[in-house]
């Protein structure tokens, strides 16, 4: 039988409560830090990928618009010169040459300009080093332009001199409408001209981002690696989409097996494609640098937190250690019991506050992500997804409501005249007008582009018409921000009067909107026939 002495002297290795609690707390803090680090890595990765795709698409769009404007200006320059030549058929050779040379030098659009008569003979050419006047046309592109008798832009091709060039021309017709030849301009894509100045200085930035331009058949026209000029890359996924006239951004693998984040846009004037790409490995390098920087900032607080956690664990274990010491003295000596003390209030308060801070931080981040997912970043209005969810919810509840679809009249001309920044301000003014014109229970949405939607809960068609007209008149009477009124057209539909499904209801309102456009814009149209008194 075991005696008390045997139990006391039993050799067993034991872990102290202070060590156990310290280890558990340290492990918990380390796991929390690891989870937070992994979550931060994934969040930063997604944000960096999305930001890169958005920036690349935005840059591709801007470059395609620049190229589109450039080609329109080049076409206008040819048309102007063709008009001068057509109105002065008796112009002598010297004056004709001076006109061509002046146009070439002043615009910088073309490397050479030629005036050709209806028989295909070059009457004047500037500069004179580009060819000899009096000789017939020799290239297939110029012959095709002469036979076509219409404004012409060739596909880029390799000339007899080994240059990558393209040819633009404008036909010449006299006052009687008789065809008198053409004015043509040659662009050396890899030599000195405005186009090469803008798109030929293609450098790779510190993040590895660069752009390239492809022709309508997928051949490289501008690329940082000049050895690849004229290479056909039509198997590239984004190049295929530019050849189909699409715009967008996505993750792709190019024809050389390199993973890229690409933004792409099509040039409307000539069906070329502009692609801006960032190698994914460079994006990961940036991500890893960000994570290392984050670790440098997080590690000292983490170490301090770990030390504080161990200290706190030992403070929590101290009462139990004191109790163990007290019990160990029982039977050996006289023990004076200490006065009772409260050991839990302070620690419980600290723990509660720590958890609440962590929960508040997670909730704040979740709210931010949720808000970003349901709102339009430019105007602050609800986005299309929110609109569809609200419509389906009200229809499921069989709650009647009206829908107003709004579209700014001739918004493209505002962007073209005043710039996209002013266009954005117009969209913001309309969004603010919408919000001030409806009730808190109503929903204002940006559907896309310059098209907006208002959902009016439990609102009849006459009431919706009043709201629509109030918004329309407010915009019509305002001169901000372009210095003159901006008008809009509106279409109205009602659930369940006009349709029982969300998609059909929106289509009814959208058709009413375009009926307003057809009827002269700056008005409100109700779908189908709906009579009501305005008294």
TrEMBL record:
Fetch the InterPro entries from UniProt.
Answer: dCache_1, Diguanylate_Cyclase, GGDEF_dom, Nucleotide_cyclase, Rev_trsase/Diguanyl_cyclase, Sensor-like_sf
The cellular component terms of Gene Ontology attached to this UniProt record, alphabetical and capped at eight, are: plasma membrane
Intracellular or extracellular location(s): Cell membrane
- Residue ranges annotated as transmembrane are 20-39, 294-313
| Topology of the protein relative to the lipid bilayer | Multi-pass membrane protein
What UniProt keywords apply to this chain's record, in alphabetical order?
A: Cell membrane, Membrane, Transmembrane, Transmembrane helix
In its keyword annotation, does this UniProt entry include Cell wall biogenesis/degradation? no
User: Where does this protein chiefly localize?
Assistant: membrane
* Gene Ontology MF term list: diguanylate cyclase activity
Record domain GGDEF: where: 399-529
Spell out the protein name for this chain. Answer: Diguanylate cyclase
Q: Which species is this record about?
A: Paenibacillus contaminans
